[in-house]
Amino acid sequence: MTARASIADVAALASYTDLLRRRGRPVLALPEHDPVIDAADPVLKRKVGETWKRRAHEELKAAMAFTMLVRGLMEVGAAPDALTRVARAVTDEIRHAELLRALGARYLGEEAPWPPAVHVDVGPLGPQPRRRASLHAVTLCCVSESIASVFFETAHDAATSPSARTTLGVVLADEVEHARAGWVYLASIRDDADVIAFLQAALATVVRDTAAAWFDFTYVTLPDGAHDHGLLANADVRRCAVTALRDLVLPGFTQLGFDVAAAEDVVRGLPVD
Ligand SMILES: [Fe+2]
Ligand SMILES: [Fe+2]
User: How far is the CA of 58 from the centre of ligand 1 (A)?
Assistant: First the structure.
């Protein structure tokens, strides 16, 4: 599974009835032995463990974002192909919270608690619910989850810890599907001229704001990363975001008939060191 394998190519994907089958996959078991964690400096090990704990909470916030998106898509009667994929993402993100919590515990050498509550303001969808739900789908899935796919792929490829690699591989596979959920949805509304025109007008802003969210390193305690342990440096994260926007996101929009010239200008202007 690689993020660059054409996330936006939705024609050959499984139907929603296949997705609705229960498969009962077990939550991941970490490898019994991890010489990379065992050999790590204790101070670094604690910082890495704390980072995974914080990131577990971020995954739970992602679960909330998808929960809100499911609500919006249900309210506008989204097609089941898109709805099923977005609904699955809710439980995927909760599973990611568990995976990263368990990985954090492995690094800390002690039990790590389940992350705290996620707060949310639930307002009405407003007078243009299709526009708002569609903007949310595009922002969260097509743009942010595509960046997440390249981010996790890069982190996975850099990691040497078997525990980090195993965990990141599972998360990566899901993030690719979350990005696809957005492209499936967008393809399903391509004949809705009002919504498509609205999304076209918003596209450059969506790209700018989503990149800004990925470039917010306020809570990062290891700015140079810890590559063996699956943590990227801030500079790597910026590069991942630009790569994803340039190579996956903008080509995806082009494929669906959008004019990406203004969004390309935004991407070209993003700071990458
Ligand atoms: Fe996730
Ligand atoms: Fe995701």
Answer: 8
Output the CA 127–ligand 1 centroid distance in Å: 31
Taken in order of first residue, the domains within the chain and their CATH numbers are: 34-268 (1.20.1260.10)
Nearest to 206 by CA among 128, 135, 109: 135
* Ligand showing the shortest atom-to-Cα distance for residue 140: 2
Predicted local distance difference test score (pLDDT) of residue 137: 98
Q: Give how far Cα 56 sits from Cα of 99, 151, 241, Å.
A: 8, 16, 20
For the question of whether the overall pTM of this predicted structure is more than 0.90, the answer is: yes
Q: Is the pLDDT of residue 151 over 60?
A: yes
Tell me, what's the pLDDT at 1? 47
Conformational region of residue 126, where left means phi above 0, alpha means psi within -120 to 50, and beta covers everything else: left
Distance 42 CA to ligand 2 centre (A): 30
| Ligand at shortest distance from the CA of 61 | 1
Ligand in nearest proximity to the CA of 58: 1
Mean confidence (pLDDT) of the chain: 93
> Ligand 1 centroid to 165 CA: how many Å?
15
